[in-house]
Amino acid sequence: MLAPVISILPFAFAFLVIFGALSDLSTFRIPNWVSYGLVLLFCIHAFLLWLTEPYMPTMSFRVPASAYNFAIGFAVLVVSIIFWRRGYIGGGDAKYLAATSLWMGPVGVVQFMVILSALALIMALILKISASWGFLVHAGGLPAFVKRLYAKFEDNQLPYGFPIGVAALIMIPEIFKL
């Protein structure tokens, strides 16, 4: 009965992640509703998974699996806020990273962070190498958001939401056990 509802969750997750990544790439802003939507969607996901588990009363206390996810999401939020306060990342990136990390779980968060770090490094290297070709960057044929991307890069700003989103999309099979 819950299978059709649970099967929609990966698509909703992917939509929110893609929207946040593309929004940050094009405007250097991630709308708050994207991060809040990811958190709300995770709460729905955790509740639906809890409903599908058979209930066996026992005398021992068992911590629900989603509690670990919330702890990880909170820890990532705290570290992200520290990075935001120091000016390393934007506030939208901090919220977006915490909201996507919430989905990863104790095992997947390390893999997610490694993929994210590699993608952010690749993006920075591509921008650094291609920025040395300034005559191509300032040519009239490039879209406005690409010119803005290079201008922000010269000010040491990167749209970290893009590699966060791509890393989250790579993790979808792990998250949803596809």
**Helices and strands, in N-to-C order?**
HHHHHHHHH
Q: Report mean pLDDT, rounded to a whole number.
A: 84
Q: Give start-end ranges of low-pLDDT stretches.
A: none
Ends distance: 19 Å
The helix content, as a percent range, equals: over 70%
Please render the helix and strand layout as text.
Blueprint: H1 3-27, H2 32-52, H3 65-85, H4 91-101, H5 105-131, H6 134-137, H7 144-154, H8 161-170, H9 172-176
Helix pairs in contact: 1-2, 1-8, 2-4, 3-4, 4-8, 5-8
Question: Can you summarize this structure?
Answer:
This protein is an all-alpha fold and 178 residues long. 76% of the residues lie in helices and 0% in strands.
If you had to describe this structure to a student in words, what would you say it looks like?
The chain is mainly α and 178 residues long. It has one domain (3-176). The chain is 76% helix and 0% strand. The protein is built from 9 helices and no strands. Helix 2 (32-52) runs parallel beside helix 4, helix 3 (65-85) runs antiparallel to helix 4 (91-101) and helix 5 (105-131) packs across helix 8. The chain crosses the membrane at residues 33-51, 63-83, 103-126, 133-151, 157-176. This is Prepilin type IV endopeptidase peptidase domain-containing protein. GO terms for molecular function: aspartic-type endopeptidase activity.
Keywords:
mainly alpha; 178 residues; single chain
